[in-house]
Structure formats: C-alpha cells, structure tokens
Amino acid sequence: MEQGVQLAAIIGLAAAVFVGASTQRISGMGFALVSSPFLVMVLGPHEGVMLVNLLGACSSLLIFAQVFRQVEYRKVAFMLIPAMLMTIPGAWVANSLDGPWLNIGISFMVILALCSSFMIRNLAMAQSRGLAIGAGAVSGFMSVTAGVSGPAIAGYAVASRWPQAQFAISVQLYFLVLSLTSLIAKGGMPQLHWQQWGACFGAMVLGIVLGNFLAPRIPQKFSRAFVVLIAFSGAVSLMASGLLALSSN
C-alpha cells in the first residue's frame, strides 16, 4: 500500500512538472502557477515552494539555452534588477506578516494591475521604462512572499504591447535569475528521493519537447490570452488560499 502511495505521488509530481514545463515553453510563463498547487500538496509548503523555484529555474534554463540569441536583454534588465532588489524586503515581509492576509493583499494587487494594463496600453506611459521597473519590483516582491512572479510581468507585457513571441523567449532569462535569487533568499534546497528527482527532471524535459512542438503552431493571440488567463488564475488561487486559511482559523 505504501509503495502504491509513493508511486502515485511520483506520477503526480511528474504530471504536474510535465504540464508546467510545456505551458512555460508555449506561453513564456506558468510553470509555478500550474505545478505549485500539487507540489505543495505532496511535499508541504516549504519543500514544495523550494522545489517550484528550483524546477522553474531549470525549466527556464533549458528553454533559454535554445533561444538566448533572440532575448531582448536590455528590456529584461529593466525588470530584473528591481525584481532582485525587492526580494530582500519581500523576504522580510514574508517572515513578518500573517500569510493569509498577505496572499489576499497580493492577489488583489495583481488583479488590479492586470485590469489596469488593458486600460493604459494605449497611453505613452505603457512604453516607459518606469512601468518596466515597477512591474519588475512588484514581481520580485511577489516571488518571495507568494512564490508567484509571473502575473505582474504579464500585466506589463499586455500594457506595453510586447509581442507574445518575443515575450515568451525573453522572459525565460528573467524567470531563471529571479527563481535562483528567491531560492537563495530562502536559504535551502528541497530534499527529495532520487526517484522523485528523476521523475521531475524527466517530465520537465518531455514537457519542454512538447512545448517546442506546439509553440510555433499556436497563434500568438491565443498564447497571449493564455498568459493573461494563467495570471488571473494565479491571483484568484492566491486569494482563495488566503480566504480559506482565514476561515479555518
């Protein structure tokens, strides 16, 4: 019975990572939002979030290695530098504030930012460096406090009309560095059995292979809509988890 439970957990981990990695390759983001609920459920919040950060970094690295010549490095830098800096106060806030209220507050800000991105995309400020810096700062703060960094960047991509193909490629460098920074800020590595490690990394490679096949075959407007849907889903799931935690207290 125990072996069956362990096998089911390994299959579940592999399935979550497979779907997350393929989503990441197709749309440019979504690994954490897709895979983290199950990883946290199986491994617990501490190990689960650390595994999400580690595998997210590895997934982005594998994709980045294929497309690094097409990355818009300058644009990424304006988001990445403030994001890395904001992991420091973010770690302090995560350790100081109550988790449920923090999740609710962050999810509200993400939903507001995504809605605002559709309203300002025709304004001059949508193309400004200030918006890129602000989006990076919010994303870095969220990466440490809630384990979700993508929604703020998705909002910036919509507002600035960043072409989906270039966004999906360039953002891999952003997620790679930010995931490693968040993992370092947490000060640890996930502890898994070798079978779990093998299943996770095997599923990641297969997911990216599937994503490589599907990405050029999916129209950009559908990929961009998927990115926004993932971002909203992440915000709603964060708010739901915060409300459930409050109701259980």
Task: Lay out the secondary structure.
Blueprint: H1 2-27, H2 31-43, H3 45-67, H4 73-96, H5 99-120, H6 129-145, H7 150-159, H8 164-186, H9 194-214, H10 220-248
Task: Name some characteristics of this structure.
84% helix, TM_pro_TauE-like, mainly alpha, 249 residues, transmembrane helix
Largest sheet: none
Rg value: 17 Å
The total domain count is 1
| Percent strand | under 5%
* Separation, N- and C-terminal Cα atoms: 33 Å
Pfam families: TauE (PF01925)
Subcellular location: Cell membrane
Transmembrane segments: 39-64, 76-94, 100-120, 132-159, 165-185, 197-214, 226-246
Keywords: Cell membrane, Membrane, Transmembrane, Transmembrane helix, Transport
Provide a compact summary of the structure.
It is built from 10 helices and no strands. The protein has 249 residues and is mostly helical. It is found in: Cell membrane.
Task: Please characterize this protein's 3D structure.
- It is a multi-pass membrane protein.
- The protein has one domain.
- The chain has helices spanning 2-27, 31-43, 45-67, 73-96, 99-120, 129-145, 150-159, 164-186, 194-214, 220-248.
- The radius of gyration is 17 Å and the shape is globular.
- By secondary structure, it is mainly alpha-helical.
- The mean pLDDT is 81.
- α3 (45-67) packs across α8 (164-186) and α4 packs parallel to α6.
- The two termini are 33 Å apart.
